[in-house]
């Protein structure tokens, strides 16, 4: 089964004990990592079907279309899946800031030893 | 606490119920996502201290220095942390293939509807 998942061309996502995949979203233009979120089977299917990123909100325990309230949708240009099919990489065209803080990316701080500094 | 984590410059990683952060590794040169793995507090500290990527192996239940057997270490150029501090982005200089299959990246397949195709 591991070999099948690793080497084959059969889509067989390996959801974790909570029924989730890890989803990494990058900006198609800049390559920057915009955000990391999670997808259940429904969110994954909705993303594939619509071409817009859907996740599972672990805090709200509900399907979450990114940008459903803000308008900052992530248009998905390409979906890649990793060797053991428990993580997906979404190559996106963002309609606006991906982060709830209003920043383009959620990764706006750099780890510098035991503290954080703004990423430039 | 959420605001503190989101807006401050205090490093305060939010480990999940299993004591893990999500770690996304990209290639500094190409921007490609190489792999997604997990870090416990020890792996995170070892990565910060040594500048080489360490993870928690969920299958082996042990600290795992990437490349410890293969030599394909990931030299970490930059560590970013996301708004809620439960995910890190490692900008890496890979010494060799990141994937156990020998491929440069674990994300060598593209989702095309209900099947996979080789990513080119």
TrEMBL record, chains A, B:
Location in the cell: Cytoplasm
Molecular function terms, GO-annotated: magnesium ion binding; phosphoribosyl-AMP cyclohydrolase activity; phosphoribosyl-ATP diphosphatase activity; zinc ion binding
Catalytic activity of the protein: 1-(5-phospho-beta-D-ribosyl)-5'-AMP + H2O = 1-(5-phospho-beta-D-ribosyl)-5-[(5-phospho-beta-D-ribosylamino)methylideneamino]imidazole-4-carboxamide; 1-(5-phospho-beta-D-ribosyl)-ATP + H2O = 1-(5-phospho-beta-D-ribosyl)-5'-AMP + diphosphate + H(+)
Pfam families (UniProt xref): PRA-CH
Domain of life of the organism encoding this protein: Bacteria
Magnesium is among the record's keywords: yes
EC number(s) recorded for this UniProt protein: 3.5.4.19
Positions of the Phosphoribosyl-AMP cyclohydrolase domain: 35-108
Note describing how the cofactor binds: Binds 1 zinc ion per subunit.
Residue numbers binding Zn(2+): 83, 99, 106
GO terms for biological process, alphabetical: L-histidine biosynthetic process
Pathway annotation: Amino-acid biosynthesis; L-histidine biosynthesis; L-histidine from 5-phospho-alpha-D-ribose 1-diphosphate: step 3/9; Amino-acid biosynthesis; L-histidine biosynthesis; L-histidine from 5-phospho-alpha-D-ribose 1-diphosphate: step 2/9
Keywords per UniProt: Amino-acid biosynthesis, Cytoplasm, Histidine biosynthesis, Hydrolase, Magnesium, Metal-binding, Zinc
Gene3D superfamilies: 4.10.80.70, Phosphoribosyl-AMP cyclohydrolase
The keyword Cell membrane is annotated on this UniProt entry: no
Enzymatic class: hydrolase
Protein's job: Catalyzes the hydrolysis of the adenine ring of phosphoribosyl-AMP.
Subunit annotation: Homodimer.
Family to which this protein belongs: In the N-terminal section; belongs to the PRA-CH family. Belongs to the PRA-CH family.
Protein name per its UniProtKB record: Phosphoribosyl-AMP cyclohydrolase
Species name: Hephaestia caeni
């Amino acid at each position: 089964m591991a070999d099948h998942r690793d080497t084959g061309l059969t889509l067989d996502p390996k959801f974790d004990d909570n029924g989730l995949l890890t989803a990494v979203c990058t900006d198609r233009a800049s390559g920057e990592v915009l955000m990391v979120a999670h997808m259940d089977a429904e969110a994954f299917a909705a993303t594939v079907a619509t071409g817009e990123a859907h996740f599972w909100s672990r805090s709200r325990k509900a399907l979450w279309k990114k940008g459903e309230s803000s308008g900052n949708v992530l248009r998905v240009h390409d979906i890649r899946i990793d060797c053991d099919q428990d993580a997906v990489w979404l190559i996106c065209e963002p309609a606006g800031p991906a982060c709830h803080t209003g920043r383009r990316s959620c990764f706006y701080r750099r780890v510098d030893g035991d503290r954080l500094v703004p990423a430039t």
